[in-house]
Amino acid sequence: MRDAPRSPIDPGDDHVPVPPATAPRRVDVWSVVRVVVCAFGLLSLAYWGYLTWPYPFPALFFIVGAPLFAAVVWYFFRSPHSPIETDVVGKTIVEVALVVAAGATWISLGHPAVGLVFVVVAAASGIVAARRETA
C-alpha cells in the first residue's frame, strides 16, 4: 500500500508537493513598448501637474495625485491581475481614457506632436496587448 496515510515522523519516501514549474515570461519588443508607454503616460501626467499648477500646494497635489489616480484606475480595471472582473469593452474604455488623458496633457502644454505620437504608439501597443489577451 503505497498511498496509505503515514505518520509525519515516518522516514522514507515522502510525497512532498512540488510547485509547478512556471514558464519564464516572454520579453519581446511589444512588451517593452508597453512598459515604456505606461511609464511615459504616468510621467506625462506628473509633468503636466508640475508645469500647469502653481507651486507648492496645488502642484504637489497634481504631481502626485494625477499619476496615482491613473495607476489605481488602471490596476482596478485594466491590469491582468485586477481584483475587479471587467469585460473587454470595459478594459478598452479605461485604457482609451487613460491614453487620451496623457496625450491631452501634452496638447495642453503646447506640444501637440508629442501628444499625437504618444496616442498612436499607445494605441498600437494596446491593440497588440488586447489581441494577446484574447488569443
UniProtKB/TrEMBL annotation:
InterPro entries: DUF2568 (IPR021214)
Transmembrane segments: 32-51, 57-76, 88-107, 113-130
UniProt keyword annotations, A-Z: Membrane, Transmembrane, Transmembrane helix
Region described as Disordered: spans on this chain: 1-20
Record-given protein name: 4-amino-4-deoxy-L-arabinose transferase
Organism listed in the record: Curtobacterium herbarum
